[in-house]
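Help! Submission page says 'invalid entity' but I think these are all valid:
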Amino acid sequence: MRKKMRQRTGVIREYDMHSVSVRVWYAVIYALCIVMGIIAVFPLIWVVLAGFKDLKEFMSSTSLLPKSFSPEQFKKTWSQLGLAKNYLNSFISVAGSVVCALLFNGLLGYGLSILKPKGCGIVKKLVMLSLLVPATISIVPLFMNIQRLGMGNSFLPLWLSYGANAMYVVLFIQFFESLPVSMIEASRIDGCSALQTFFRIVLPLSKPICAVITIFAVNAAWSDFLLPYLVLRGGQLQTVMVRLFVFSTEQTVNADTMMRSVVFSMIPPIILFILFQKQLTENNVSVGIKG
Amino acid sequence: MNRITRHFRGKGMKMQDLRSWLIMLPGLILMTFFVWEPLLESIRMSLYKTENVELVEFVGLKNFISVAGKTNFTQALVNTFSYTFWSLVIGFLLPIILAMLIGETSRGKGLFRTAAYLPNMLPGLAVIILWSAFFSGGKTGVLNIILSHFGVSAQTYLTKANLVIPIIITIATWKGAGATALIYMAGMAGVNSELYDAAAIDGANVWQRVRHVLVPAIKKLTWTMLILQIISVFQIMYEPMVLTKGGPDNASLSLMQLMWQYAFGGSMDYGKASAVAVIVTAILLVMTAVYSYFNRKESDWD
């Protein structure tokens, strides 16, 4: 009985189920949800299946299923395109981005929510306003700045760009403001400096928000390709997404190889999703919404 | 002065403020370098003739006149509004409906949420390339394979000027609608389910409960999501860039894509690219202002 009560939180209540028409509607709702699920997942399954086809089969077969399920084609594409190197580049790019995202946005959020020095109100307003400003709109002058400083063909500008994310700063501010003041006061009385307090007290208390921002930043840094393309193009440091973008604009690879590259580019995000789906589908939305 | 700040006071307030600013300094420098300065710089650059990364000569509004005078600008402007229109038609109500449907399920709810959110995790570029295979013409296009089972002959999709924008919006909706639905679900979860019971005791049937309890509860959120969606669709760029290169015959060219073309499409005309960026920003500002005007009016009525 208790279990049932917990389960039904929607508009349709337990007692409504006595009515036949409501039961029919309920079945329709389930059917629609299942259709939604199929539409959401089908393209993903298809692209994996398509990856098993060689070029001839890909261009001529009208069957959705491949003839054989041997991983041969995947292995071939992986070694031919040298994707291992791009994978490594992507991982380096992601790792640095996450560190920057946590450290710089965290410190800024700490200053704006807990330390609150004189005059920080205007900075907080500026950060809030930056939420509305689209990132790509100033990509041209940003790219020129990076060129002028001679930071082209390096991960540094990409890493640092994640240290300047208004959304993450706002998420940090919201979380820090909810921290118990007494803990921070206590650390001060124990003789910690403001910076020590941040690393010893504030960050350890902020694991949930750090986890959310880490997941966001990993996914964003992995998927990003516009600025990485401009900074890394032509060089040795190209990430998986930059390679994929070059393939798609220059059409230098065959359609079947392209689909396998797509599969390779999706593997890490999917693993991330499987590991953290609970946080992603339950946790982040409630914080994201306030931001 | 706030309680915590007082405790951090070391040798007088000024010293402490200085230290706090020092802690924020790295973040501030990065925000300036990556967000604030480029934004102002793009306004300045739009007024200059550029050569490579140098600003050569102040030319006033010449870049704007030259950009706006071309037919591809008018086309891109119309297309961008068309993207926005179609995204509202296809992608605005869908997440709300999805959220309502998933919200009513009991068994398998977690599974539906997971499925809905999954496309949002996939890299946008990979999603576009993946869907290009779905909509490719000829009999090996996935959609054509599926349609052939229903006796429909092979069609072309992305080469049809009137179809290309709705198709791109459909793809973007596939990627984003589920994640948006979860945001609405969080909003709907804010309704205490005892309210439904109370309404039921007052004789409200299921539909009436949806109309008078659930819908009012997410009204404010819906307004916010509306402006967020408009702002984000208005900047659509890489989707048409990868899928159609703006074709057929500029039918899917967006304003931001035009900006990219000026800057990185070979001519390296950063001044003109910035002019386009400034125009897009101006339009977005106007739309946000109109929105907040109506939003204020709306909340006055409440």
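Support: the input was valid. A stray whitespace character was the problem, and the output above is from the cleaned input. Residues 17 and 233 of chain B are 41 Å apart (CA to CA).
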